[in-house]
Amino acid sequence: MGKASRRKKGLINETLTSQGRHKKESRTCQEPPSKGGLHRMTSLLVYIPILILLFVCFAAYFNALSGDFVYDDELQIVDNPWLRDIRNMPTIFSKSVWSFQPEVSTSNYYRPLMHFVYLFNYHLFGLKPWGFHLVNILFHCGVSVLVFLVIQKILTEQNVSQPSIYLSPPFIAALLFASHPIHTEAVTWIAGLPDVAFTFFYLLSFYLYVRSKAILSGSYLLSVVCFAFAVFFKEPALTLPLILFTYDFVFREGQTRLLDYVKKYLSYLLIGVGYLTLRILALGGFAPEKRHVTVSAYQYVINVFPLFVRYLEKLLLPINLNAFYVFHPIASLYEVEGASSLMATVLFMLLFPIALKKNRAVFLGLLLVTVPLVPVLYIPALGENTFTDRYLYLPSVGYVLLLAIFLSWVRVRLPRAAKNIVIIFLMTMGLYTVGTISRNSVWKDNSNLWSDTVRKSPDSTMAHNNSGLAYAFKGQLDMAIAE
Question: Is the pTM of this model over 0.90?
Answer without folding.
Answer: no
